[in-house]
Amino acid sequence: MAHSIFSRLQVPDFMPCTLIIKTDWARVEAYGDGVIFTLAPGAQEDGKYTNVQFTQNSVQYGLMNSGDFSPHPEIPFYIASNGGKFKIEVTHGALSEDAQDSRGDAALRLPYVTLDCPRKDDDIRFNKSTFEIYPLIATVANLQVKSDWGAIRTDSEYATILPDPNAADNTYEKVKFSPDGTFMKFDGKGSLQSDTTIPFIFVTRGGTVDITIMHGLDKSKEGDKEGEAIVEFEEVRLMSLNEEYTSGSNVVY
C-alpha cells in the first residue's frame, strides 16, 4: 500500500535529533535543498555543545584521531526542512575507549527511529553511513472490530502504530501496543463485540507500507463465522472479511 494515499496531520516544522557518539569524533552533514541544522533550545547554556563545531549543514564533535573519549556525549539539535526528502551523512572514528579494539560507533536518533552508524571495515578511517530522510507523515486511523478480537500489524521499515493522544481515557483498556510500535491488538477476552472502534495514529517516513489485519471468527453469536475487522485511514478503507474460513485468524495483506 503506497503511503502517498495518506493525508497529512500537523507535525513539528523542526525535527528533533540527537547525535550519539561512542568514539573520539563524529560528524553529521545534511544534503538537499531547503534543509538546515539549528541549535536545540537551552542546549548551549547546558554545555551540550562543548567541543562541538556547528554550522547550518553540519555538526561535528571532537577531532579526527584525537583519542579523546571523555565524555561520550549526546548532542541534541534540530533539522528544519521545506518538506522534501534529503540526505544525512554520518562519519566517525573507528577507535573506542579501548584504543586497541577499533569498535567505535555512532548513531543518529530521530523521532520514532534510531539510525545506527557502525564501523565499516571497507572504510575504517571515516566509517561513512548515508540515509535518506523523509518528513514524518502522521495519519489518523481507526480499527473497527466486529468480533471478540482484532489487530493490525505492520512489517514495514520506519512505520509505527501509536495511540491517539486525543482518544478518551478508557479507549485502550482492552488494547495492547507492542513496544516496537509494529502491532496493536484489541482483545475482548472471548466476549463477542457488536462494533468496537479503536483510534490510533499511523506514522510513516516514505516509501510503501504493508499492513496485516487480523480478527476472530464470530460476529454476533458463536459459530456464525462472520467476524470482520475494518481499518480506516481517513478516506482510505481497508477490510478483512471472513470469506474463506481456514483457522482462528483471518489475515489480509
Work out the oligomeric state of the chains in this entry.
single chain
Give me the number of helical elements.
0
Low-confidence stretches: 1-12, 241-253
Distance between the termini: 9 Å
- Can you tell me the overall shape? elongated
- Write down how many β-strands occur, each being a DSSP E stretch of 2 or more residues: 19
Question: What Rg, in angstroms, do the CA atoms define?
Answer: 23 Å
Beta percentage is 35-45%
| Pattern of helices and strands | EEEEEEEEEEEEEEEEEEE
> How are the strands of the biggest sheet laid out side by side?
3-6-1-8-9
Mean pLDDT: 78
User: How many discrete domains?
Assistant: 2
Q: Given the helix and strand composition, which structural class is it?
A: mainly beta
Q: Fraction of residues in helices?
A: under 10%
Can you summarize the main beta sheet? 5 strands, antiparallel
